[in-house]
Specification:
α9 (197-208) packs across α10 and α23 (529-538) packs across α24 (541-548). The chain is globular, with a radius of gyration of 31 Å. β7 (268-277) and β8 (280-291) form a beta hairpin. 54% of the residues lie in helices and 11% in strands. Among the domains are: 12-110, no CATH class; 262-357 and 696-716; 372-574, no CATH class; 596-683, no CATH class. It has a six-stranded mixed β-sheet with strand order 9-8-7-10-11-15, with helices on both faces. A three-stranded antiparallel β-sheet has the order 1-2-3. A three-stranded antiparallel β-sheet has the order 4-6-5. The two termini are 37 Å apart. The longest helix has 24 residues, at 453-476. The chain is of the alpha+beta class.
Length: 728
C-alpha cells in the first residue's frame, strides 16, 4: 500500500492553531503547533491505574505529510486539552487574535524546568559509579606510592595527609549515590535524587557558562531575590559542587546510553592526549559519534594520571574507563587520533597501537595533521641562515619585552615567542607594524640589538607564507572538520605557498647545469630572480629599501635563503598525511567519502565495493541485512536525484570544502536516512586533536592559582556542565 501523502490545507492554520514554518526543496511544508510554541504542553501526573502512560511533552510538535485533521486532533486532545476545548468555542476573529499577544514558551525560563515536580531521580549503572567515579578519579594507592618514594618523615607525613584528604573527598563524593534496586538482568545500579530541580538546573547552567561555584551560588541567590522564587533559596558553593559532581555521573550515563543505541551508533572514534598542569597530569579523551542526523564532538573525560606516563598505564586506564562505560566498545571503535609523541604512536607498544590491537575490527590511526604542520613550520624556520634568523627573533623579543618605558609609551607589549608556531606569526606581525618606533628605540638604547637589513628582508619575504600557515591552522581547528576536508585544506595550503613564491621544478636536463642569473635555485626547485624581488617589494617600501641597501653578495645570500625556505616548506607539507598504517607510516588509501557531494560521484558498484564492503562485517553486528540493503538503495536514490533534480544538484554543488556534515546532509533532512547514518559512522574519525587541546585550555583556565584544591571530579563536572545541552 503506497504511503499517504495528504497535502496541507491552508484553512487548517486557523482551525487547528497551526503555522507553516518552512518548506523543503520540493515545496512540501513543515507545520508547527502554535499551542506548543506559545503555551507549552499540559502538565500531567502519571498515576498508578490511570489512563495516562506517558509524561507530557516538553518539545514543540511539528507535522509533516500526511496532513490529516485526525493527527491534529490527536495531538491537541492529548497535549493541550483545556486550551483546545476553549479554542474551539471561539469565533473566527477571536482565533485570529488568540496567539498575537502571547510570548513563545521557548523564550521563558519555565519551559526548561518542570515546576510541577520538586525532584529528579537519576539511575546510574554501578560500573560508572564504582569504577570511574570512585576509582579512576580517586587513586589513593598511586598517590601514596608516588609520595612515599621520597625519604624522610616529612615526605611520609605529607603523603599521609594527601591520602587522608583524598579518602575524605572520595567518601563525600560517593555519599551522593545510593544503592538502587537490581535490574531484571541482575545489573546493579545507583540512584541520585535531586530534591530541587530548578536550583540544580540553574546551577549547572551557570557553571557551564564559566562561573565559579561561589559565583554560581551568588547569581542564583540574586535571581531568587529579584524574581521572588523561594525554590532557589538555600544554595551555597558546597551544594553547587555536589551538583557538579552528580552531573559527571549523569553525563557519563547519557553517553553510555547513546553508545549502546545500535541503530544510531554503529561506530565511534576517540581522540586523546596528556598534559600536566600545576604538578598534576591529566589524560583528556574526546568522543565523536553520529546521533540522529548530527555529528557530535563530545568531551568524554579528563582523568588524573597518578602512575608513570607509560603507554601501558594509559592503555589500562582507558580500557577500564571504556569497559565501565560501554562494554561493547571494541566492536564499535573505528578511529583513534593522537599527536605524534612516541608514547602515543609507537609502532610496537604505543597507546594507539594497543587500542587498535584491542579492537575487534579495523581501526584508522590518525596522527594530528596540525601537529605535523607545526613541526614542519618550526623546522623550516630553524634552518634559515643556519638558525641565526630564528635565534635573533627570539632574543629581540626578549629584549623588547623588558623595555617597560617603551611598552608604556606604545601602549602595547611585544608578544611572547613560544614553542607554538602561531605565536611566531603574531611576533612578526608586531615587529613589522611597529618597525619604525622599535628601530628608533633600539638604536638609542642598544645599537648592538638592531636587526640587520638582511634579517628584515627575510622576515618580510617569508611573512606571507607564515600568515598562510596560520590561516590553515585556524581552518583545521574546526570541530566539525572531516578527514577529506582536512586533506583538501592541506593541498590548498601547498598550492598557495607554491603560487606565492612562484616555485618551479628544475628539469632533469637542467639539474646538472650551473645556476642561471635569471633564477635562484635550491636543490630541485628554483624561483625567477625578478619574481623574488617583486615578492619582497610587495611587502612595502620598507622591505624594498632594506633589500636595496644590501650589497651584491648579501642580496644573493638572502635570495638563496628565501628559496631554500620556500622549497623545504612545500616539499615537507606535501608529505603531511594524517592517516597512518600499522607502522605509523603515511597510509596510501584516502579517507572514505561521507558527504552527498562526494557520494554522487561514485557509481553504485564502486560505492558498495570500496566504501560499504570494508565495513560490512562490523555493521552486521548491529544492523540487519535489510538495513544494509537500504543503505545501498539510498545511494542509488541519491545519485538518481542528483542527476534528475536540478535544484538538488545546484544545492549540493554549492557546498564548498567548509560545509559541515550536518549542513551537507540537511539538503534533504528526511531522505536517505540509512545512508546518512552509515556515512555518519565513517565521518566520526577525528582528523586531528585540536579539540583535545581546547579541553586543556579550559582545564588550565579553570585550575587557576586560586583553585588549586579543586577536586578532579569537580573539574570534570565543569567540562560536563558545558556540554549538558548537547547531551540533552
Amino acid at each position: 500500500m503506497p504511503p499517504r501523502t495528504t497535502p496541507f490545507q491552508s484553512k487548517h492554520c486557523l482551525e487547528f492553531g497551526l503555522e507553516i514554518v518552512s518548506r523543503d526543496q520540493h515545496g512540501n511544508p513543515m507545520v508547527r503547533c502554535n499551542f506548543c510554541t506559545f503555551e507549552g504542553c499540559d502538565k500531567v501526573e502519571i498515576t498508578e491505574g490511570g489512563t495516562r502512560k506517558r509524561k507530557s511533552r516538553v518539545d514543540v510538535k511539528y507535522f509533516t505529510k500526511p496532513f490529516t485533521p485526525l493527527n491534529y486532533r490527536s495531538h491537541l486532545n492529548g497535549q493541550h486539552k483545556e486550551s483546545w476545548e476553549a479554542y474551539q468555542q471561539m469565533s473566527t476573529s477571536a482565533k485570529k487574535e488568540y496567539f498575537n499577544d502571547k510570548i513563545s514558551s521557548t523564550n521563558t525560563l519555565h519551559v526548561h524546568m518542570d515546576l510541577t515536580s520538586d525532584s529528579i531521580e537519576y539511575t546510574i549503572k554501578a560500573p560508572i559509579v564504582d569504577t570511574i567515579i570512585g576509582g579512576l578519579f580517586f587513586n589513593a594507592e598511586a598517590i601514596q606510592e608516588e609520595d612515599c618514594d621520597d625519604a624522610g618523615e616529612d615526605a611520609a607525613s605529607a603523603a599521609s595527609k594527601k591520602i587522608n584528604k583524598l579518602a575524605k573527598q572520595k567518601n563525600n563524593a560517593m555519599l551522593l549515590f545510593k544503592q538502587g534496586e537490581r535490574a531484571s538482568n541482575g545489573a546493579a545500579s545507583y540512584t541520585v535524587v535531586i530534591k530541587n530541580t530548578m536550583r540544580y538546573q540553574l546551577a549547572i547552567d551557570h557553571v557551564g557558562a564559566g562561573m565559579s561555584f561561589k559565583q554560581t551560588a551568588l547569581a542564583i541567590g540574586h535571581a531568587k531575590n529579584r524574581a521572588q522564587v523561594p525554590k532557589l533559596a538555600g544554595i551555597n558553593d558546597l551544594i553547587v559542587g555536589q551538583y557538579v559532581r552528580v552531573q559527571v555521573a549523569v553525563a557519563l550515563q547519557r553517553i553510555g546510553d547513546m553508545l549502546n543505541n545500535d541503530k544510531q551508533v554503529w561506530a565511534f572514534s576517540l581522540a586523546g592526549d596528556g598534559s600536566t598542569h600545576r604538578g598534576q597530569s591529566f589524560f583528556d579523551l574526546r568522543l565523536r559519534l553520529y546521533w540522529h542526523g548530527r555529528l557530535l564532538n563530545l568531551h568524554l573525560v579528563a582523568l588524573p594520571m597518578f602512575d608513570c606516563h607509560t603507554a601501558e598505564n594509559m592503555f589500562n586506564m582507558i580500557v577500564k574507563l571504556l569497559d565501565a562505560l560501554f562494554p561493547k566498545w571494541r566492536a564499535k571503535l573505528i578511529g583513534v587520533s593522537s599527536d605524534g609523541e612516541n608514547t602515543m604512536t609507537g609502532r610496537h607498544r604505543g597507546l594507539v597501537t594497543r587500542l587498535v590491537a584491542a579492537a575487534e575490527y579495523n581501526v584508522m590511526r590518525v596522527w594530528c595533521a596540525p601537529h605535523q604542520i607545526d613541526i614542519i613550520a618550526k623546522k623550516c624556520a630553524d634552518r634559515i641562515d643556519g638558525g641565526t634568523w630564528i635565534k635573533f627573533a627570539y632574543s629581540y623579543t626578549v629584549y623588547l619585552r623588558a623595555q617597560f618605558n617603551l611598552i608604556i609609551e606604545m601602549g602595547a607589549k611585544c608578544p611572547k615567542k613560544t614553542n607554538r608556531w602561531v605565536h611566531l606569526g603574531n611576533v612578526l606581525k608586531f615587529l613589522k607594524e611597529n618597525r619604525r618606533r622599535l628601530m628608533t628605540h633600539t638604536e638609542e638604547d642598544r645599537p648592538d640589538m638592531l636587526p640587520s637589513d638582511a634579517w628584515w628582508t627575510v622576515t618580510y619575504a617569508i611573512a606571507p607564507a607564515i600568515d598562510a600557515i596560520n590561516i590553515a591552522f585556524a581552518q583545521l581547528q574546526n570541530r566539525s572538520l572531516l578527514m577529506a576536508q582536512q586533506e583538501s585544506h592541506i593541498i590548498a595550503l601547498v598550492a598557495t605557498i607554491s603560487t606565492m613564491f612562484d616555485l618551479e621544478l628544475i628539469d632533469r636536463v637542467d639539474a646538472v647545469a650551473e645556476e642561471h642569473e635569471n633564477f635562484v635555485r635550491f636543490e630541485t626547485m628554483r624561483i625567477r630572480t625578478d619574481h623574488l624581488i617583486i615578492l619582497i617589494e610587495d611587502q612595502g617600501s620598507m622591505a624594498r629599501d632594506c633589500f636595496l641597501r644590501l650589497d651584491v653578495a648579501d642580496k644573493a645570500t638572502v635570495l638563496k635563503q628565501i628559496v631554500a625556505y620556500a622549497e623545504t616548506l612545500v616539499i615537507e607539507l606535501q608529505g603531511v598525511r594524517a592517516e597512518r598504517d600499522d607502522s605509523n607510516l603515511p597510509r596510501e588509501q584516502d579517507a572514505p567519502p561521507v558527504l552527498p557531494g562526494q557520494l554522487v560521484g561514485l557509481r553504485p558498484a564502486h560505492f558498495i565495493r570500496n566504501v560499504l564492503d570494508p565495513h560490512r562485517e562490523r555493521i552486521l553486528r548491529f544492523w540487519s541485512d535489510v538495513d544494509i540493503d537500504e543503505v545501498e538503495e539510498n545511494h542509488r536514490q541519491l545519485v538518481a536525484a542528483y542527476n534528475n533534480d536540478p535544484i538538488l544538484r545546484r544545492t549540493i554543488d554549492e557546498h564548498d570544502n567548509s560545509a559541515t556534515f550536518d549542513d551537507a546532509w540537511d539538503v534533504a533532512p528526511h531522505q536517505w536516512l540509512h545512508l546518512r547514518a552509515f556515512c555518519g559512522g565513517l565521518a566520526t574519525i577525528f582528523p586531528n586533536t585540536t579539540s583535545v587541546e581546547s579541553d586543556f585550555s579550559i582545564l588550565k583556565w579553570e585550575m587557576d592559582p586560586n583553585r588549586t584544591d579543586l577536586m578532579h571530579l569537580s573539574l570534570e563536572g565543569i567540562f560536563q556542565a558545558k556540554q549538558r545541552v548537547v547531551l540533552q
